[in-house]
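re: that complex we talked abt at group meeting.

here r the seqs, copy pasted straight from the sheet so there may be weird spacing, ignore it
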Amino acid sequence: MKKRITMKEIARLANVSQATVSRVINGNPDVNEELAARVWKVIEEVGYVPNQTAQTLKRNQSKLIGVSVSEMYNPYFVELVDHLEDKARKLGYNIILHNAKHNPILEWENIQNFLTRQIDGCIIVPAGRHNLERIGKLPVPVVSITQTVDALDSVAIDHFKAGKLAAHSFIRSGHTSFAYIGKADDEKYLGFASGLYEHQLPVSAVRVLELEQTSNDHFLVRQGIEKHFREFDAFPFTCVFTENDIIALECIRLVEERGLKVPEDISVIGFDDTLLSKIMGISSIHQPIEEMVTTTLELLINRIEGKLSPDIVSIQLEPTLITRRSSNHRRI
Amino acid sequence: MKKRITMKEIARLANVSQATVSRVINGNPDVNEELAARVWKVIEEVGYVPNQTAQTLKRNQSKLIGVSVSEMYNPYFVELVDHLEDKARKLGYNIILHNAKHNPILEWENIQNFLTRQIDGCIIVPAGRHNLERIGKLPVPVVSITQTVDALDSVAIDHFKAGKLAAHSFIRSGHTSFAYIGKADDEKYLGFASGLYEHQLPVSAVRVLELEQTSNDHFLVRQGIEKHFREFDAFPFTCVFTENDIIALECIRLVEERGLKVPEDISVIGFDDTLLSKIMGISSIHQPIEEMVTTTLELLINRIEGKLSPDIVSIQLEPTLITRRSSNHRRI
DNA sequence: CTGTTAGCGCTTTCAC
DNA sequence: GTGAAAGCGCTAACAG
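got the structure back, here u go
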């Protein structure tokens, strides 16, 4: 464990001024080549790395982006974070990650902590709506990812359209009685209902099984679904659209435990197209993660660099339905 | 987007010196209560947050811990990171995360980047052995988590013992022909073989199916296993121990696709006891994540604070076998 | 108890 | 082209 080396030390060893070392490191073109070479040599030899903290203080930019996600149970968010970290690093930024666990108080604390670290910008998967207003007033740009919200720049797929996709697919397969599991005040449910409506199916054709908890812990999700299923002797629907893949997976397991077959008796379409659905052969609405991440970072960095007009930017990407085994069945 | 407020500004507004504001913020007990109240009031009013970058520079400690993981495909590492972040934050530290993707060059770049950010310490899931030597020479303390390595402080379960647990369990269930899927130069394989040896079973009783790639991408894992399976008309073993749960899961799927039953025809024990095994009912070696995380942070922070003798600390925790459906079957 | 001051490591005018 | 010097926001002696 050797001591950290500073620029001053490099300057001394290379027999130049600190200013010159700084110029060399920052690629200032008008430094004598010979000097530059001497400086680089010393830097290599002693393994010097610049102190980014001091740079941050001086330049008033940290090259740090705060990322707040609402949870990590859903592999979808993990993929998101993984790509964000990778892509941001390639753009010269580092990420500082917090998991708000669906807790608005924690979310706000985390954001305060980000501020403390002098982040240049912030990307959030909002944990509810509680903090949105004050998040909009932060001294740094913020982009909401995966959720379109009024007061913030955002990048997300069109959830309404996604819901329609699921509805249309079920209808084309001959289903006439439907279920939706998840939060009902969600665009994707509204889209689903709207998709049915377009085909003259009444809203009453869809049974909403609302889950109490917001967490996507498998065990809790399972309990939540089970509670609804216990009310049925026979299932009053032949297909289920779920808020996410975790719910879809647990739904399928519970259906099968009751001796019914997926997709023959009950078809299922999930949401997010995560590893879970890929592994388990579950049909799912695909979210283009890489595109969302690229778009989000572009937007955020443009904001950081002040290149955008103050109007809120709301980017909606196209959802697609990936059909796999769980809904690959035609009724009648 | 308002401008960031500094301590100087607070001092001006509260009509005190900057030093006093600093004292108030840092909870220095000998400040006049009335003054302190006045300062706090201003802080609240303008929503001031201290600039941790400046603190870092001055105090020469960043309260930042670098975390480098070898991959994120395995949910085990996700859980690890999630707990690390949570626990570290509660101890006053933030985490800066990098995914080395099993790439030693990337791993080293990431560590350099950590240094640049003035991390106080570093926690790594080593991506191979390539960088271990120079990692040991870093100017900050480093703890290896999940893997015991010679040159570094480490916290991990006893993989050798874990392998034995799996072997003993299979033997007790009446198995006499075994397979291991994963890297063969792994302690857990050695333990497995040793467990068989203890019961007078020859090393030849275990068939090693080595996977070429280190990544745990489901698709690649599946391909790797398939390649081995294609060589068999009938499986020359009745039970399989795998390096991790992803391999276990894909193994089970492939066995079932061949029309065989798990656990009746082939029993399977995985490793890590991740969500995957919990959801899918796969027997698995449990790793006590929370305990590992707590222990690791304790160790690292003690090192940071210089409270430990220079000797390398290698902590081995107890593995346990969680038996679920995939190995719950007695032969003959 | 409170204010003044120096300085953490770096960048960036401003002279030379 | 290169060096000297000021200052980013904060903490910690040191005076008073």
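couple things i noticed - Residues 140 and 256 of chain A are 49 Å apart (CA to CA). Chain A is about 45% helix and 15% strand.
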